[in-house]
Amino acid sequence: MIIGEKKPLDEILEMISEYKKVLIAGCGTCVTISYAGGEKEAAELASAIKMADKKAGVKREIRELTPLRQCEVEYVREMEDQVKWSDVVLSLACGVGVQTMADQFSGKRVLPGVNTMMLGSHGADRVFKEYCGACGDCILDETGGICPIVRCSKSMLNGPCGGSSNGKCEVSPEIECGWQLIYDKLKELKKAEEWDVNRPPKDWRSSWHGGPRIVNKESGKRKAESEERE
Amino acid sequence: MKSGSNLEKKLNSGKFAVTAELGPPRNCDMSVVEEKAKILKGYADAVNITDCQTAIVRMSSITSAVALMKQGLEPVIQMTCRDRNRIAIQSEILGAAGLGVRNMLCLTGDHQKFGDHPEAKGVWDLDSIQLIAVVKKMRDEHLLSSGYDMEKPVQMFIGAAENPFADPFECRAARLEKKVEAGVDFIQTQIVYNIEKFEKWMEEVRKRGLHERAYITVGVTPLKSIGMARYMKSNVPGLDVPDSYIERLSKAKEDGKDLKQEGIQVAIDIIDRVRKIPGVKGIHIMAIEWEEAVPEIVKGAGLK
Asked: Which of A158, A165, A180 sits opposite B129 (nearest CB)?
């Protein structure tokens, strides 16, 4: 899922300073699970803004609404009346939700109340870790199911580097060395010989480096590749 | 001969090779490079020029190499994958080879978080093993990574680093084998202090026959102070500094000895021991911001 983090209140107050009718739009999926932008966080943020406004003598109306998903047009369309009432939408969805919402309501500013962090999952209770870099050409079958693109700080395809120490990355003792994890996993699977392969440079065209991607299910083409295929 | 460099000739001849390291300045003062080159002249078969080591911005390795060559020294340019993609890397290699550089060390590079621009974007398009293969292809097949035929090979003696002390220890000789498979000609190891552990690594290297497929040279760094030893022990990932060195320096201090001399002697003692290990073909002296120590070490170790 997409992991989000709440933006600091001061940053949000600054963003909405010129608006008098603010619709806080939570999102019921990823950011709910990552404690960043669900119904609960939307209510908490509404209270916090109201308190800050009261203290500063600011007059502002706040409403909240949390659809199941802001990244799907049909759920976003259902919010139309509330969006029309507002003079700005403060979205607590990931960047995808913020932009889907903005696409649907022309002339309406949609502000981000959350920082979109990564594609990840629970590492421990209330701790989320990055798992996927969405590179568009998955090699988890080659690396024991552990992604070197984002779980190695240098995206090495032939790790570990010389900075791996006691299972930790040179970047921080809190980061596990992705290649130690790969090595251990392959051994556990009795496939240690798969580590011995020299992997050639990656073709990054399937990733964002090939330009913003479009996956067309109708034609079966990806934008980044279509020019070459034709 | 693959490159025609002095370093290659020396290693091919079976003689014990000495390389040293030169850190370029954090400004555009070329005289710093020239002064350091003067100190090292005559004491090393080739001199590595670091490529923004620990991710700190310094004068570029290839530019400094030109100054070095003017003084009659042979450079080993270092190239990391941190700051350049494959387009920039190959372009730099063409430039270096065109200027007459014949040795190159292929490195993945320290993470940008260690340097003076931790907010920078890292590139990491290639890793060190892929970089070795890219240079080898440019030399042996005169092909770019894309397959474009340059019709003229890049003459380069290809080096790489390997850290016998990083984890997991059991895959370290195997990782060296990957570099050998990729086409490396010589290796400069991470700084060796823990000789017992290094011997174990070399045993595995010999078992795999890697010492016969690439020249192994050993990284040696004189300890400038007790503080430096402690810092390296606790703050540099993948560096193994046994307590005995800290004790030796502390004792020297108690006895009123010159600590810098003791630090140089430590390096000489390490060289004396590692050069007896079968498969070791040379040493690489990294006297960090202390190039003056190199002549004393080389003379003290009887290598000059």
From this structure: A158
* Domain span including residue A65: 2-118
The answer to whether the Cβ–Cβ distance between B113 and A163 falls below 8 Å is: no
Domain final residue, candidates A118, A153, A181: A118
Of B86, B125, B171, the CB nearest to A183: B171
Q: Are residues A6 and A53 in the same domain?
A: yes
**What tens digit of pLDDT does each residue of A48-94 get?**
999 999 999 999 999 999 999 999 999 999 999 999 999 999 999 99
**Which residue bears the tokens 């700080």?**
A153
- Mutate: best of A170, A181, A185, partner B, most B CBs <10 A: A170
| A36 and A102 share one domain | yes
Residue pLDDT, tens place only, B239-263 = 999 999 999 999 999 999 999 999 9
Same domain, yes or no: A79 and A99: yes
Whether chain A has a CB inside 8 Å of the CB on B132: the answer is no
Cis preceding-peptide flag for B168 (omega within 30 of 0):
yes
Q: Which residues of B touch A199 (CB under 8 A)?
A: 130
Nearest residue in B to A161, CA atom: B108
3-class DSSP assignment, residue B215: strand
Q: Domain limits of chain B?
A: 6-300
Distance from CA of A146 to the nearest CA of B (A): 16
**Widest distance between CA atoms in chain A:** 68
**Does residue A95 sit in the same domain as residue A55?**
yes
ipTM comes to 0.95
Angle at B112 between CA B60 and CA B189, to 5 degrees: 70
Residue A126 lies in a domain: no
* Domain shared by A7 and A108, yes or no: yes
CB pairs below 8 Å between A and B: how many? 90
Residue A37 lies in a domain: yes
Do A162 and A81 fall within a single domain?
no
- Token pair of A114 as six digits: 């959350």
In chain B, the residue whose alpha carbon lies closest to the alpha carbon of A173 is: B237
For A:28-57, CB contacts with B below 8 A are none
Give the amino acid at B200. K
Using CB atoms within 10 A of its CB, is residue A215 exposed (0-12), middle (13-18) or buried (19+)?
A: exposed
CATH no. of B6-300: 3.20.20.220
* Amino acid present at B266: V
